User: Which sequence fits this backbone?
């Protein structure tokens, strides 16, 4: 990232740390993905059960290996197993002590917006795990819900490619508005604010462009 984009990312991340705090979330500023990983790990107690949402940001943070090899009970959704068994891991993660994910978009007024294929990440962020840690690159910040949906449908073809779904956008590079089994756009979740569940949401704003 060039120095101007980095500076913009720093400004956006710092702004959102303050704005999201006002919306009832615990917030943290991370200069880069390494610092974000350290903050995330500091928030996960030894012995905790941990689930994760599918996320390029968590991969960039090298967090999955830490969870796999650390003193946690990790519900590892990345094992090479039949999808029926992966779905069982998704269900176990709904009752994990801690759920770690990113967000597809965060609005400047504090709404956390996510789109899922199976709905497991949307569900776990909404309810279940007692602690939710969200690592969010500055590139995920948008002005409002309309921009959030624009962003999500703009990046969804990349997610469809990543998870190798046979959706039409994989061939065209843009949303074709499909409603098929292979769609990665089946569930939309919006968290409006954190005031109902003070202490549950921990949002790490990363001063980098990271993740889709
Ligand atoms: S709705 Fe279908 S075509 Fe559009 S981005 Fe999602 S998976 Fe791709």
Assistant:
């Amino acid at each position: 990232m060039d120095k101007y984009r980095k500076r913009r990312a720093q400004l956006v991340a710092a702004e959102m740390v303050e704005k999201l705090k006002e919306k009832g979330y615990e917030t943290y500023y991370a200069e880069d993905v390494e610092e974000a990983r350290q903050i995330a790990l500091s928030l996960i107690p030894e012995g905790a059960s941990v689930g994760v949402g599918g996320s390029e940001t968590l991969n960039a943070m090298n967090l999955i290996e830490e969870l796999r090899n650390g003193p946690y009970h990790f519900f590892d959704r990345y094992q090479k197993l039949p999808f029926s068994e992966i779905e069982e891991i998704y269900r176990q993660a709904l009752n994990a002590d801690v759920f770690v994910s990113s967000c597809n978009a965060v609005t400047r007024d504090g709404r956390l917006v996510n789109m899922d294929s199976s709905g497991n990440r949307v569900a776990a962020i909404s309810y279940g795990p007692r602690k939710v840690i969200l690592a969010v690159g500055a590139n995920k910040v948008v002005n409002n819900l309309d921009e959030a949906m624009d962003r999500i449908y703009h990046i969804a073809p990349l997610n469809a490619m990543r998870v190798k779904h046979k959706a039409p956008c994989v061939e065209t590079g843009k949303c074709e508005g499909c409603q098929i089994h292979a769609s990665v756009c089946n569930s939309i979740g919006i968290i409006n604010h954190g005031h109902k569940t003070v202490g549950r949401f921990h949002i790490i704003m990363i001063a980098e462009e990271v993740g889709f």
User: Anything to note?
Assistant: The chain is about 40% helix and 20% strand. The two ends are 15 Å apart (CA to CA).
